[in-house]
Amino acid sequence: MADLSTLSALNAAVLSDTLDSLGLMRQAMKPFMRPLDDALQLVGRARTGLYMPVYAQPAAGENPYEVEIALVDDLQPGDVVVLACDGPSERIAPWGELLSTACVARGAAGCVTDGLVRDVRQIREMRFPVFCGGIGPLDTKGRARMVERDVPVQCGGVAVHPGELVFGDVDGVVVIPREAEAEVVQRALEKVAGENQSRDALRRGEKLGDVFRRLGIL
Length: 218
Prior knowledge:
CATH class of the largest domain: Alpha Beta
Shape: elongated
Strand content: 25-35%
Number of domains: 2
Distance between the termini: 28 Å
């Protein structure tokens, strides 16, 4: 199992390239998945929630947030909430300020959802990493409900299993399958070291073709 602290030296592009090199070419979420704050990096393990649309207000006394509350209250340090809404959804906004506040208190690493996010200013102020399919003011009540948690889901076009590594930065979100985790992280760290050598050579004025022939990195 990878040491998550080592992933801070990586980026989504390098991880995507490394996954590609292993034949895992469907691990990057679709381009509509964007961060609320371009400066923040997201690294952690997936805790998943599956949403379905609804078209009526809940019955009197019914708690429409029961499953998502249970998920958030069970979060551990380093967990990433991954909410699948079959997005980009125009009417499902499962994430906002209060859920983010609860996550920060529990040491969670961030949230990824292909639904909408609201309370954006407040979330940005707390510097909590959130990646989403869009922004909107809608409440999920009467529009959607989390029906299962900690199950395999499809989010942003990528299959996500509970416990898998999730990495996000300004370039996007990638998911690393558990069976390939150690090899992907090791190869990605080696690629970063090679890119650093290439960058230094280019800054010295070496030609791009010469650097590529020598190091094989572009």
